[in-house]
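Schema walkthrough. Field components (list of strings):
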Amino acid sequence: MSETPAVQVSSLVKDFRGSFGRGMIRAVDDVSLQIAPGEVYGLIGPNGSGKSTTMKALLGLVTPTSGTCAIFGRDSSKVDSRQEVGFLPENPYFYKHLNGEETIRFYGKLCGMRGRSLRERTEELLELVDLQDARKRRLGAYSKGMLQRIGLAQALVQDPRLLILDEPTAGVDPIGSRQIRDLIFNLKERGFTVFLCSHLLEQVQEVCDRVGIIHKGTLVKEGRLEELISIEDQTEIILRNATPDLLHRIHELADQEEGVDLVRSGNPRTTLERLFLRETVQRDAKADPGSGTGQGSPADGGPDGCNNDTEEDSP
Amino acid sequence: MSRHPHSTPLFSFSRIWIIAGNTFTHLMRMKVFYFLLVFVLIWLGLNVFKLPHTAGPESVGGEELRLLKAPLVGTMKLFAIIIGIVATALLIPRDVEDRTLYTILAKPVPRLDYLLGKLFGVLLLILAGLTVMTLLLDAVLWYRTQGILSEFDKVAGILIEQQQWTVEDRQEARAELLSHGVTWGLQGAILVIFFEAAIIAALALLVSTFSTSTLFTVVISTLSYFIGNFIADGLDHWQGSSGIDEGSLGDLSTRALFVAFPDFRPFKIVDEVLAGQIFPPDVLGSLALSTGLYVGLYVVLSWFIFTYKEI
Ligand SMILES: Nc1ncnc2c1ncn2[C@@H]1O[C@H](COP(=O)(O)OP(=O)(O)O)[C@@H](O)[C@H]1O
Ligand SMILES: [Mg+2]
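Field assembly_structure (string):
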């Protein structure tokens, strides 16, 4: 790869001193990873596996015990490396005394933005994260989902090329979490590089190009998503309105073939999340087609929800 | 692609100003300080009516003004010191706890700018509070001075008529009276209070970079303040009686002591000015200098600790 990687973590080790100086906790143990520009990378692992610590080291918020991190080739220990990155921490709290608009402006000013360009950027971001109505409300009165979205807006304020999102949908209800995921899709299409971590596997599966699995501080598996999760020797056929007779004949055909096993047949299940969304947001959208909360649904009537990866919402 | 070709300067006034402004707004919107300020203003206002007019000749009028000033200026000093310690002690731990600090330092913001921004925000609040109170103090004092002056002129007129006073006597007594009114020296003394608060705020900043709780910061900073003042009293006494040679062991250990506990001796000028002494202008310069040195020292130490802090 000739292009400078967006993220370069090399042999990162981070030890934390235990409480009262007793012992050392190795939070990250020799992690190396690289993210190419334009890629969406998901780091998954259980709580306490070192995801947040890896991200903080990349942002220069903690000093590595050994190893190095760089963003677009600039060493993370230097302040300059933070010019091209936006960060949304885990469960963020912003200044409660500011309202939504002031929050974006504050972070914009920290990045050296001023005057008209900042005003325009603020408008743009409030629209992007759908918080125009709440712009004058203090953050103390924001819901969790709104906080995550304002957090995303402040991360994007200086139009960075890389976004680092630490559990962006943790603690957010399915509708809010869908909104955030749609935003990430949107950003991916615009060519942003995204480095996110989560323990909600389904979400990672939906948005990421590449994933790494981290366990007890060690990166145990890494690769392109399709390669990691596809079961190479199986094929899935999904039929609509199949008669019992047809199914019987398919079973027979499979039995006749040498070496073929019919592993499973039955009704595919929609995911609970999709069911929830269909029964709430998309129902609202049908009842009130004018409002833009549910971002359009392919109301083709049939039981379309199934466990394939068709996106129901086209961005 | 190089949309951000410039490198981030370590120290940027505009960035510090943004953080300071945010800190100031933050404190103003924390109703506690609002109430404190309102309370102080009411207290100042009440003092206008508290003292009865004791119209007497000579320096009695001056005495009355002195009695009026002392508690008012004392209150202002208390306000400045409390805000300096408490506000500073609250700010950084709160940012760490709420993880707001992550979002700030994840932007191209050097840690030094963050610390200076927080400190200046607190100083801005103290300055604003002191300014409002000074205006009120001056108004009250001016009003009372006018009242006393008109009575003084009446009495003095009679005394001259009776040939007990010469015109020079009257001039002298009048000047003495005015020296207790609204003077530049008084404004200078309040500026010195601000200096003292700045030192103690910077000290609280230093303590809060390594302390694990707000309470600890408040206690340690308050103790340092009292010890600093206590040492100042003790040393004045001791040096007065024994006399320490420049560069001697005693002198050196005194200096070491003053790194941890600010040397507040020169700041006692406030009390003398309140007692009616003229404020020597050159003292203000040297006090500003030593304030700058103390604040600078504490900020650099804070920065050093904060850079290596796991946040
Ligand atoms: N500041 C810290 N001091 C001490 N231990 C820490 C600190 N931050 C994280 N750890 C420890 O490091 C490990 C990894 O934490 P973290 O990176 O937050 O995990 P994750 O984000 O994957 O849930 C945990 O065992 C945690 O207790
Ligand atoms: Mg975490």
